[in-house]
Amino acid sequence: MSVSLDHARDLDRQDPLAGFKRRFALPEGVLYLDGNSLGAQPVAAREAVGETLDQWRDELIKGWNQGWFDAPERLGDRLAPVIGAADGEVVITDNITLNLFKLLGYITGRCGDGRRVVLSEGGNFPTDGYIAQGFCRVSGHAHRFLPEDGELAEHLEGVAVVVLSQVHYRTGRLRDMVATTRLVHAHGAEVIWDLAHSAGALPVDLNGSGVRYAVGCTYKYLNGGPGAPAFLYVRRDHQDGGWQPLSGWHGHAAPFAFEPDYAPAGDITRFRTGTHSALAYRALEASLAMWAEVDMQALRDKSLAMSELFRECLADLLDAHGIEDITPAPAARGSQVSLVDTESGYAIVQALIARGVIGDYREPGLMRFGFTPLYLSFEDVWQAARHFREVVESGAYREPRFQVRAAVT
Ligand SMILES: *Cc1c(COP(=O)(O)O)cnc(C)c1O
């Protein structure tokens, strides 16, 4: 390879984030490049969840008054600095899908009747469009897609709200959050930012970017665990008045007054719905404690250095085998490398997984490799590239067992 293993090891010696790796429980012999789909397990998560199991056993229902009930707001405040938000602006609850529905209802309830369109980003992660379509069926709004290569400014006529991903889940393209937010607001519309592939992947500055609404998940780069609850952000000055449409009892101004009529809580709590999993919050809490120590600029620098190292190691091979590298330029990139081979992409990813190199595959033809600076070393990246090279050069991916499709890819 054009880059030596010694060089990768040199980079590891200079890495200010190197100490985080041992705080993750990674299986032996696995090179995990899929933290963009499900983050690895923080060592502290096992003990935290174990303590909560004990608490359930010993304290029974009293546990709700011992940190379970207010976990959505408490953990929201913990996450806030990681995404450039302030205390009281973030609540951890439900999943992205439900949080989008709630925000669509809340925002359209606040804006004038002249705006009847909900705009989704064509080519975005499907649930973002699906839920907007479902919302429009009950609200009577019209739903439209922004064409994948469309100019946003030309599609904002009559739009109440547009949903955009800061980092695109397929290509890894990073949108200019400041300029885009300004553009949407200048057209009198609102934007909900989806941070699924940016929170924990790079520095995000919601307050500094003029953002009013955002959602994101905690089970990808934030390592909250499988099915960990998502987050929802509303800027402080947009939390006044209004309902969100999933008006459940935990979002009520007085949930234990058991009043017949709904009255929304006056703050971010209104975006809660009903009873949540105390166990899931504890696993996430263990991870968020670690995020409080992370220098986000160092994270960004390492992320880009790793994705560049991977690309550099493979450049000649990709050329020779007609595999297309659609990864955007560093400044316009999230934390992933995206390679396209419509014929063999799926099989190559399966052959890599069989060797313990875990990336993932998205139709059509896309191989995704996520780079998580807290638990990957430069040597890991180098070794993953070596495996990729061997799989492609040897033709090992052509084996029939690598062509079989599983339910989750
Ligand atoms: C992963 C992801 C989701 C997941 O939504 P859930 O409701 O949490 O399952 C949504 N949007 C984007 C852009 C994603 O990448």
Number of strand segments: 13
Count the helices. How many? 10
The shape, in one word, is globular
Number of domains: 2
CATH class of the largest domain: Alpha Beta
CATH fold description of the largest domain: Aspartate Aminotransferase, domain 2
What's the SSE pattern? HEHHEHEHEEHEEEHHEEHEEEH
The CATH superfamily of the largest domain is identified as: Type I PLP-dependent aspartate aminotransferase-like (Major domain)
Largest beta sheet, briefly?
Answer: 7 strands, mixed
Low-confidence stretches: none
Q: Which architecture of the largest domain per CATH?
A: 3-Layer(aba) Sandwich
Query: Which distinct ligands sit in these coordinates?
Result: pyridoxal-5'-phosphate
Terminus-to-terminus distance: 29 Å
How much strand?
5-15%
Describe the model.
This protein is of the alpha/beta class and 409 residues long. The protein has two domains: 5-41 and 295-402, Alpha-Beta Complex (Aspartate Aminotransferase, domain 1), CATH 3.90.1150; 67-291, Type I PLP-dependent aspartate aminotransferase-like (Major domain) (Aspartate Aminotransferase, domain 2), CATH 3.40.640. It is 34% helix and 13% strand. The protein has ten helices and 13 strands. The chain has helices at residues 5-13, 43-59, 71-79, 96-110, 126-139, 177-186, 278-291, 296-321, 345-354, 378-394; strands at residues 31-32, 90-92, 117-121, 142-146, 159-165, 190-194, 213-216, 231-234, 324-325, 336-340, 357-358, 360-362, 366-370. The strands form three sheets. A seven-stranded mixed beta sheet has the order 2-8-7-6-5-3-4, sandwiched between helices. Strands 9-10-13-12 form a four-stranded antiparallel beta sheet. A hairpin with a 3-residue loop joins strand 12 and strand 13. The mean pLDDT is 97. Bound molecules: pyridoxal-5'-phosphate (PLP). The site of pyridoxal-5'-phosphate has 13 residues, from helix 4 and helix 5.
